[in-house]
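User: Sequence for Lactosylceramide alpha-2,3-sialyltransferase below. Tokens please.
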Amino acid sequence: MKPTRHLLLVLCPMVVLGFLYYSSGRLHPWGWGHKSLYDKQGFLLKLDGNLPLELMYKYGNLSEGVCKPGYAAAKMTAIYPKFTKPVPMFLDPNFRRFTKISKFFPPFGMKMQGMDLHFRSISFWMTMRNGEPLGEDTVDHYLSCKKCIIMGNGAILTNKSMGARIDEYNVIARLNEAPVSGYEKDVGSRTTMRITYPEGAIQKTERYEQDSLFVLSAFKALDFKWLRSMIFKERLHSTDGFWKSVAHHVPREPSEMRILNPYFIQEAAFRFIGLPHNKGQMGRGNIPTLGTVAITMALHNCDEVAVAGFGYDMSTPHAPLHYYEKIRMVAIKQSWTHNISREKEFLIKLVKAGVIQDLTHGICGSGC
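Assistant: Structure tokens for Lactosylceramide alpha-2,3-sialyltransferase:
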């Protein structure tokens, strides 16, 4: 009996340890050939657009067209369980409390020498109106449910006559210098915010639309200095360090300017798309396009998210890239910072799962 007892004493711990090993997710207890339900970024592999049962109960009885509170975040969480919703659109003087950005250099964070003092000096003026603090600052924060649309600049918008439909959204975000005047039939006439970086900002002041926020998406430390000169109406003595000409004046009061939370660049690049980390610094092929950054922002801050004007068709290199200029599609291949194919894979996931609605069907065409 003693040999048997000794054998059991040896086997029992091995069985327990084996069970713990299997249940930890390293292996599946039903066989060696088990495949994960999620891809390496953490997204559900099977994306059919169907609502999970709990969301069917929550949203199934709402009338068509009625805004669905929390819908985009709920669907995002269903296909990407690591998603957490509460991330503010803009930075405030207390940005250091966001540890996810205080540990990264631009464009993924705010880790810079003397950044506290520099940022506080400009954010004080940005968060005042008529001498009074703005307080909690979100776009249309009074709305219980926000429908947002992120406007891409793609030529796919041409002759679509979607302007009236676009104008129905509560929040309309436009990117860089994409014009509105003269294109209203296709791109709409309203603008809630214009997200840009210095090299992409509108340079002709008469082209700025009224009643919209000017939102800086900073990709380098120099961008914050540029914003300071715009706020304090200071002359730019040098444009060294910018990769092309920049605006010398922005016709906005400080209270109409904001800084986009750089966490959205960090999250889009490293978590959603899976671009090279490069020790948390800007490098070849690890910067998401501004459009994808804006979509990431909307997933955290909007109840429903739509896009229009997105999608690069690399099979037509001589087709127009944007709806408002003659630059050709081939120009996007010359960008060393973006990885268009990887980014497109991420956007296709969002469309297939119904997390976002693509009004112009440029992200995956008939493939969704």
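Strands lie at 128-129, 132-133, 147-151, 171-175, 193-196, 213-216, 257-259, 304-308, 357-358.
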